[in-house]
Amino acid sequence: MIVSTTAFLRRNNGRAVLPETRPYTFNEADTGTARDSGQAGAYWLGVAGAADQAVSRLEELLDTRHPGLLDGGPGAFELRSDIAYWRGESGDATGALELFEQLLADVVSATGRDGFHALAVRNHVAYRRGLNGGIKRALEEYRRLLPDCESSLGTGSRDTLMVRNNLAYWCGESGDATGALELFEQLLADVVPALGADDFYALATRNNVAYWRGFTGDVAGALTHYRVLLEDCEGTLGTRDYHTLSARLQLGLWSGVAGDLDDAIESLDRLLPDVEGALGTSHELGFSVRHQLARWYGARGDTGKAVSILGALVTDQRRVLGDNDYRTLASQGLLSRYTR
After folding, report:
1. Is the pLDDT of residue 2 over 90?
2. CA angle 51, 55, 57 (to 5 degrees)
3. Mean pLDDT for the stretch of residues 2-23
4. Which of 84, 159, 209, 317 has the fewest CB atoms within 10 Å, measured from its CB?
5. Residue 217: exposed, middle, or buried by beta-carbon count in 10 A (0-12, 13-18, 19+)?
6. What is the CATH number of the domain that holds 17?
7. From CA 168, how far away is CA 22, in angstroms rounded?
8. Could you tell me the superkingdom of the organism this chain comes from (predicted)?
9. Do both 112 and 49 map to the same domain?
10. Which of 217, 241, 262 is the last residue of a domain?
């Protein structure tokens, strides 16, 4: 495997709305148990929010096991991929892209462009390119990557299906919401037969379909989809699972978009302690809930409450995510709007 992580990566292009769509890494459902204790320990550091520490731990392992990167085999590739991934999660998007590009050159040189490791790293490069603002190029890279995955891994491979998810994601991020919805609907039709209706990625794809349905103007349809999805997530994943909590966030968000500000605020107020209890007070999902709470308080006219929430949120996001993270900047922008 190339990367072992369940950390969630998103963009919102500065919008107050937080898309549930997301790009995926290959084999990311793995929790680190298949790795040795050193890599698994670094993984759990990253998941706990200590991405910088995860990078340091992995760099030590790389220096110990593969001094000078003389070993170009899968072991070194995996470590370097994990280092690049957690570098990005620490807030250094540019550094992560550079590391993945360097890794890709070495992997292609060793194994060619169509081997599993090369396909996985190409996925990372395209994703990080998008995060660095190169959305059009990221979309082009995914369009080239998909047929290679279909040829090498098969059209029904989980990894191929996830590349289709990423293609749809960047299609939406490029501004083509209708195209993104069409791609996600096509993906859902193939994911369910291949993986099952209750599979983790089937639920995630349903989430994406619901989001883009709302974003293209069908807010009532999005709310209906999210209500059904929430019931299924609770039954399949439990009430404390990230996806279940995220579906609740989306219900609150789209309730606000539909104009029911009181319901949005009430739902998000109930959700916040559940998210922080399950994931901790520094998790990005909790930050998203707080951002949406502030948004709807402000929309209802309670700017004092919105400013109070945003002031504390921006402080926490700067500490955890960094000053230049897009989520920090989105919250700072909303705070500036209410304090003019």
Report:
1. no
2. 115
3. 30
4. 159
5. exposed
6. 1.25.40.10
7. 9
8. Bacteria
9. yes
10. 217
Q: How many domains does the chain have?
A: 2
Q: Are residues 21 and 136 in the same domain?
A: yes
pTM here is 0.78
Residues 143 and 289 in one domain: no
Residue type, 242: Y
With 0-12 CB in 10 A as exposed, 13-18 as middle and 19+ as buried, what is 199?
Answer: middle
Domain boundary among 217, 234, 269: 217
Give the C-alpha separation, 264 to 294, whole Å. 11
Reading the block at residue 89, the tokens are: 């999660």
User: Contact, 193 vs 161, CB < 8 A?
Assistant: no
pLDDT-derived band at 70, boundaries 50, 70, 90? very low
Give 17-68 pLDDT, tens digit per residue: 223 344 455 544 343 434 566 788 888 888 777 888 889 999 888 888 655 4
- Range of the structural domain that residue 76 is part of: 1-217
User: Do residue 47 and residue 152 come from a single domain?
Assistant: yes
